[in-house]
Amino acid sequence: MSNKCINCDIEIPRGVDYCPDCEARELSKIRGFLILPAIGIILSIISLSWSTFQTLKILVDKFQLLTPTLTWLVSYELVGFFLLFLLSVYTCFLFFGKKKALPKTYILLMLSGLAFHAVDVYLTHHFLATPVASDDLRVVFHYLVSSCIWVPYFIVSVRVKRTFVK
Q: What pTM value is reported for the model?
């Protein structure tokens, strides 16, 4: 017994929604769960540009008041935020251009963000002898959970493999 394709009414085997042509067309679109990483990339560009600007402002406005250790930590944050911003912009172009390099680049973005924020929290706590702030842990936890979800998804998902092929 056979069914008809949802889009074009061609006869297809039972248990399948689309004919091969329609399936290729449908899976090449950014839909379903891929909407969430798309939103995340755009939000990270906004957030990282703001963080870069604020960190640069602190470094410039308060440079005379900063101790050498604090200057080094703020400089680390400035460079990290800026590099993550650049990586986010590049990832965004790959994502919306449906480029084949996107899965590896997105995984790099997720793991780089996790590593940067975890090291930042550690350095701040270690060198400034301050308690770890819950906001800092929230950011690390966000990257950790996001990485645990999206890294495997981008590795094994058929939709990812069929969407990002150019």
A: 0.84
